[in-house]
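Archive transcription. Copying these from loose printouts into the bound notebook so they stop getting lost. Printout 1 of 2:
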Amino acid sequence: MKNKREQKTTILVVVITAFVTTFTGSALNLSIPDLGRYFGVSAGAVGWLVTAYMLTVAALSVPFGKLADGAGRKRILTVGILIFSASSGAAAFGVSLWMLIALRVVQGVGGAMIFSTNIPVLIGAFSGEERGKILGYSIAATYTGLSAGPVLGGLLNYHLGWRSIFVLTALIGAVALFLAWLRLPADKKNTSRRQPRDIWGNLLYVAMITLTMYGLSELDRGPLPFLVTGVGIGIGVLFVYRQLHTEYPVIQVRMFRKNPAYACANAAALLNYGATFAISYLLSIYLQAVKGYSSQTAGFILIVQPALMALLSPLAGRISDRFSPFWLSSIGMALCAGGLFLFAGIGETTSLFFTFAALVITGIGFAFFSSPNTNAVMSCVEEKDYGVASSILATMRSVGHTLSMVVVTVVVRLYMGEKALEDAGAELLTETMHTAFILFAAACTAGVFISLKRNPSEKQD
């Protein structure tokens, strides 16, 4: 499909869905204190609004990606937008926290369907020479959603209440649904024989991801999460064994061994997301508890990083069409590592300029990592496997985010025991941050070497 009108529609649908799925989560974070007061529940209970969605997306993205590769990506994407938008609209009328959590699970089902199809739909509409450029648009929309969420979400929550965030999400989703339903080109006819579905493989995958991620996210709550994590890892071993011995696997596990470029690109994504996700969390506390800025001022300072990501991602994607995306993403990873080492040096007397510089470096680094690395991943697989490849990349992001917060939790407990991060003294807080950022910088540095082990000659169009 090379029709210009259809290409523009495809970009618009993908950009809207990439924006709204990230905007909702980042905007909702600003409402968590108000939600706790409104429903009279603890912060831990409200945190399930985030955890339930994250677990659902991570567990179901790959199964839906496999389904979309066979049943049609437009169909799965459209249904996903419908589910996401309808559950958002219903959440605006939530009468209890548990009703909202249940609707966030449903929203996660729609989100998984979107994440597993929007990138394959996008790159399927363009030639291989334009892949990096159009991926840049999608990734820019993702970080526009992340950067707009705290600002717009804060305004909506303050003036109209938390329900308005769900209303806006539903309205934006309705626009995407209209465009996808009526304007997206039909799926290509699949003339190949429909492959049987590996039902047991899908069930093992869902159980593996759900138990492992849940256990990791709750490691600070006693011995049970360690047991849950161990069970999840054990199920993962069974999953890999089954994938190696079934004719129609959910994931071609052998491809990770036979295609080092593909394996390294996914490993680099996991390390990069894991190393950078907690930056805004740690810095938001540092800027308020150590430097004394208001939450509003801290938010405007932190917006620098995602704003640069959104601004530069299309440029980075365009460059990756002309030069090796493998090398570009390695350079981006190195910049992220450099920024993290700078964060490891901030303290009570550090100037705001220094913090800005570190945010700028990591923002540029992530822009030059994400678009080219996504381009590298998708260039390693055939078109028929785009859905699963995109889903695995989305799972790397979710697992990386979880691991990032696990590192923060472990480091905080090591330094401060049960004391809340916000209640620590400035000296203890900065020591805790130094350790966390050194660990993240080390992970990012390891990611640079993993990236450099990739063989650019394995890139395919």
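Printout 2 of 2:
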Amino acid sequence: MLNYSKKAVFFDLDHTLWDFDRNAGEALSELYDIYGFNRYFGSTPVEHFISTYSTINQQLWGLYNTGKITKEVLRKRRFRETFQVLGADPDAFPEKFEEDYLAICPRKPHLFPHAIEVLEYLRPSYSLHLISNGFREACQMKIRHSGLEKYFQNIVISELVGVLKPHPAIFHHALAKAAVSETEAVMIGDNLEADVNGAMKVGIEAIFFNPNGLEIEPEGYLSIRSLDQLRDLL
């Protein structure tokens, strides 16, 4: 159980509430057919294209979260490197594909199971807030099109604050917006470094969302595999 009673619950967005893999997979599958990518990859199934992209995108986001690359570099590299890894000429990648992906993917509405019912359960007893390292325009679309907007008193986006999780400043900013102390808040997220360790370093208790059952021994934080387990903790 948590060590202190709480007044505010902070959630990460991507991979915690908003099902990034499902939404991105749908968007990429649609665009793969529209752009006829089979002419580049032959019999390579779309699922292999998606899984390759997902691995590269995750690696690049790790670099972005640690300040090693910019937003522009991340967006420029992720699909070109996917082409390269799959044996296609990266210069053949159509730039408009990225534009269409950015227009379609954030409008996908899929959330993790139990997300809405848990937010409904928490809302009467806690103030709810989002802290995301995602890009402003994409975050805003995801929140609006998935029906999340009405649940959160504050939406803290790193691009607007000027620092990324796990930097202490973004958590202090969120605490000030929520008007609570460190011990009165809890952070829930899927990223051990950005969400969990970042929160704990400023004195906020954390819950690791681990839907894939990664074999990690929790150290100083709680772990859940399904969002409905929050009912037992809050």
